[in-house]
Amino acid sequence: MKTTRRLRELLAREETLMVPGACNPLTAKLIEQAGFEAVYMTGAGVTTEMLGLPDIGLATLSEMALTAKHLSNSVKIPVIADADTGYGNAINVMRTVWEYEQAGLAGLHIEDQVTPKRCGHVEGKECVSLDEFVGKVRAAVAARRDPDFVIIARTDAKAPLGFDESVKRGLACASAGADVVFPEALQTREEFADYAKAVKAPLLANMTEFGKTPYLTAREFQELGYRIVIYAMSPTRVALRATQEFLADLKKTGTQASWVDRMFTRKELYELIEYSRFTGYQKEFVGQGVDPIAQ
Q1: I need a labelling partner for 203 at 20 to 30 A (CA). Which of 81, 90, 154, 258 fits?
Q2: What does the alpha-carbon distance between residue 151 and residue 66 come to, in Å, rounded to a whole number?
Q3: Which residues of 212-232 are buried (b: 16+ CB within 10 A; e: fewer)?
Q4: 3-class state of residue 9 by DSSP
Q5: pLDDT tens sequence across 147-170
Q6: What is the DSSP letter of 203?
Q7: Which CATH superfamily is domain 3-232 in?
């Protein structure tokens, strides 16, 4: 089944779809291995972890599309990707959709911030006009070649323009053809509930850490009417903390020995990247090959 069609099926269920974030294939594989049914390619993660830069729209379309291709090729489950502001005007948005579709993604989201954009949970955000944003959404819908490719419209209007404007934009985007509406940085359970009552469309919530949104469970979001919850930077934050602690200990002690029981073993890593499958290809097509896991 196409991953786009699979994502449509997942969105049609009553159960809220939990989607952890990844910015590299190994993390995407771990998400799939853990039993999650979709992966979120985080723009913040790609920008900070792959480029070492702040999340202000510095990653280019080509960099994001290449990362999307690697992630999509590494797993069998759908991948949804952040497309920031669409990398330009409505015509640029059309090319973004083409590139993301060709990368093998199941869907993307674009947002209504000005360029340079900011993380959705920091101060100082500004939004483009409603007409400009609706034009981008309409362009994205018109550009897709696969009718199952999911277009998600993210509005950051709540902080700079107020809750009512965020609702207005969500309704306008749904009318323009967006498959999912993503109200960013709502601040209370009540706001999430009120938004779901006002905007009768599939909704996405961003359950980020250290942000504006309180920690709600996936079950709570489901009860409020949200179809998708993303955990954009959660795996990255955990990995960074663990790596920082390991490096500090390695510098202090001069050995990694006390950390070995907390590491992925060679066997676990090789199984994750399906090393034996490629050894099989070597045996079949080259005439030789030794399974490294069997040794």
Answers
A1: 90
A2: 19
A3: bbeebebebbbebbbbbbbbb
A4: helix
A5: 999 999 999 999 999 999 999 999
A6: B
A7: Phosphoenolpyruvate-binding domains (3.20.20.60)
151 to 35, 110, 126: CA distances (angstroms) = 24, 8, 22
Tell me the per-residue pLDDT of 159-200, one tens digit each, with 9 for 90 and over: 999 999 999 999 999 999 999 999 999 999 999 999 999 999
Instruction: Indicate the pTM of the whole model.
Output: 0.95
| Residue that is written with structure tokens 């291709």 in the block | 69
* Joined tokens for residue 220: 């709570």
DSSP code for 117: P
The answer to whether the CB of 38 falls within 8 A of the CB of 218 is no
For the chain, give every domain's residue range. Answer: 3-232, 240-286
CA 270, distance to chain mean position in Å, is: 25
- Report d(CA 145, CA 105) in Å as an integer: 12
Instruction: Compute φ and ψ for 127, nearest 5 degrees.
Output: -120, 150
Three-class DSSP category at 157: coil
What are the C-alpha distances in Å from 27 to residues 42, 102, 107, 288?
12, 21, 19, 31
Strand stretches in 28-148, DSSP E: 39-41, 79-82, 107-111
Q: Which residues contact 149 (CB under 8 A, 6 or more apart)?
A: 4, 97, 101, 105, 106, 107
Q: What is the three-state SS of 260-282?
A: HHHCCCHHHHHHHCCHHHHHHHH
Q: Which residues are catalytic?
A: 40, 55, 82, 84, 109, 111, 119, 154, 184, 206
Q: Are 44 and 83 in contact (CB under 8 A)?
A: no
